[in-house]
Amino acid sequence: MGIFSSIKNAIFGKDEPKPAPPEEAQKARDNSITAEALRNISRAGSVDVEDRLSKMEGADRLNWRTSIVDLMKLLGIDSSYENRKELAQEMGRTDYEGSAEDNIWLHRRTMQELALNGGKVPDKMLD
After folding, report:
1. Residue 108: in which H helix or E strand, if any?
2. Are 118 and 46 in contact (CB under 8 A)?
3. N or C: the chain end with fewer CB closer than 10 Å?
4. What pLDDT tens digit does each residue of the chain (127 aa) get?
């Protein structure tokens, strides 16, 4: 199981939300989908990602809304550089170096992927 699957399973649990249509998901992964289209996909999601995360123990002490490291910590997933690099590769990025910009991109891309998999993610976490 990959890092993203671990993140998704930790948030969605046993729920099986309806993912975005494959053609829309591929556009998002290729960066050819509009921001508005991605927001519309997210609004149709059946699992409220922010609500679930905010109810987890320790959520009030971590900056998980913007930090990939804190998001992974909240979910009990090793947030080491190696795991973040692996996650970035799963998201299609081969030049991940762990910089602040890389981590911002990785958090946003993870939230986008959650939306594509049936999660309802706030707009501010998608842009």
Report:
1. helix 100-116
2. yes
3. N
4. 699 999 999 999 877 787 777 777 777 777 767 778 888 887 887 899 999 999 999 999 999 999 999 999 999 999 999 999 999 999 999 999 999 999 999 999 999 999 988 999 999 998 8
The single-letter code of the amino acid at 95 is: D
Read off the tokens for 59: 């959520």
Q: What sign for the dihedral angle of Cα 71, 123, 108, 114?
A: positive
- The CB density around residue 66, as the number of other CB atoms within 10 Å, is 14
Rounded Cα distance between 79 and 6, Å, is 12
Question: Of 1, 5, 2, which Cα lies nearest the Cα of 114?
Answer: 5
CA distances to 12, 51, 64, 94, 104 from 39, rounded to whole Å, are 19, 17, 20, 26, 18
